[in-house]
């Protein structure tokens, strides 16, 4: 599905840009703990951007319905990485409570891909 190729590519682009910003723009402005949180957000955003690209390619070559998995990955990026980015720069610890919701969405997305592949 073209949508997930686009969303995946945009998220990969953002992960690279945010990773560079974290390495150069936030160096010395965040403690190592919060810089590590920023890096974790970038890492998981990139992993799932690549996952979205895979879903986009697969949905164009098979009859698998991967829409749910794609939207779960997209929402997972927003909740997981987004909450970590905000946590890193604001240091408002309560935002860390949102992060696991994104993690559950990531897990559910991969489960949906497994189920779809199992049905092949």
UniProtKB/TrEMBL annotation:
Its main location: membrane. The chain crosses the membrane at residues 46-64, 71-88, 94-118. It comes from the Bacteria. It is found in: Membrane. Keywords: Membrane, Transmembrane, Transmembrane helix. It holds the Pfam family DUF423. It is a multi-pass membrane protein. Belongs to the UPF0382 family. This is DUF423 domain-containing protein. It comes from Macrococcus equipercicus.
């Amino acid at each position: 599905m073209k949508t997930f190729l686009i969303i995946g590519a945009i998220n990969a682009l953002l992960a690279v840009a945010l990773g560079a910003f974290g390495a150069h723009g936030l160096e010395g402005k965040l403690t190592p703990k919060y810089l590590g949180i920023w890096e974790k957000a970038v890492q998981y955003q990139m992993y799932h951007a690549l996952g979205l690209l895979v879903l986009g390619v697969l949905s164009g070559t098979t009859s698998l319905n991967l829409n749910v998995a794609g939207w779960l990955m997209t929402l997972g990026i927003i909740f997981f990485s987004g909450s970590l980015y905000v946590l890193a720069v604001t240091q408002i610890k309560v935002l860390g409570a949102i992060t696991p919701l994104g993690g559950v969405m990531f897990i559910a997305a991969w489960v949906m891909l497994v189920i779809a592949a199992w049905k092949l």
